[in-house]
Amino acid sequence: MRAHSAVLCLLLAALPCSLAPAQAVSLPMQAPKYLDYSKELDSPSTLVVVGRLGKWKEGKRERLADGQLGGGNAVASVSGTQFFKAPVSTTLQPRATLHGKADKPTLQFDAQIARLPDGKEQRQLRNGGTPLGEDTLALFVLTQRPKQKGLDVVGVLPFDKDQYKGSDPEAAFLDAMRDVHTINQRVRELEQALAAVDGARDADAKKTALQALQAVVDKKPDLKVPANDSLLSQHVGPFEVRAQKRLADHKAADAAKAGEVPPAGGSGK
Fold first, then answer.
1. Beta partners for residue 81, in sequence order
2. pLDDT tens digits, residue range 40-91?
3. Nearest-CA neighbor of 216 among 238, 245, 187?
């Protein structure tokens, strides 16, 4: 009997997690600390707001053939889970408006609802898999819905209480999100300045574009959280390297024309 019990235990241990009994699902990955929305800043209808979602008004549910809990590299599976999608309308109570103008914006988006075998439900964005619910605090990137009321959710960076310690974790999160926005602004400024240099059609236009690029390079961003310097280097560094190369190449070309640096094979006189 003991032998049979031991074999049964081994078989149960070998079952995939999708066949395990229903239980609370914990995705094995911390919430991301950065969201790239630099290109969205070009649109006049874009809003970037740190705020808290209000009460949801959920529309008619539609059963989905399949779905998943989470998104990206953080995905879980529980056998017997039923998936639905539904349109959601809710308001956002801003803590800080980082881009655009927002009073109390109304959001419209599709949510995925996962009903676990134990009857509990988990909600997330249909597009992207970010967990969302009433009272969620997050950085929201929003844009006006074409010819419709309300705002679309383009991106979300949610508050994770495990990442922000101290006496006021939500204030620490707000400072971190200000840094995220500063980094996105920096990326876009460098992208635009580099594009202007590359697209210049004559010498005067190129000179003006290079002066503007130099001004962007000289303007160093001021982050609120020193630990976010690594995020700045990771996301802005490649553009700054390209900018410095453009400026150095231009100075070398000017010096060669002026005779300060001999061109290849010549004396420079």
1. none
2. 999 999 999 999 999 999 999 999 888 777 665 566 767 888 888 999 999 9
3. 187
Average pLDDT, the chain: 83
Stretch (H or E) spanning 50:
strand 47-53
The length of the chain, given as a count of residues = 269
On the CB side of 144, how many CA atoms lie within 13 Å of its CA? Answer: 10
CA distance 155 to 32: 12
Q: Domain map of the chain by residue range?
A: 29-65+83-158, 169-258
- Give the N- to C-terminal CA distance of the chain in Å, as an integer: 99
CATH code of the region 29-65+83-158: 2.40.50
Count CB atoms within 10 A of the CB of residue 117.
Answer: 13
Look at residue 74 and give its three-state secondary structure.
strand
The label of the residue with tokens 């308001």 reads 91
Q: Which helix (H) or strand (E) holds 143?
A: strand 137-144
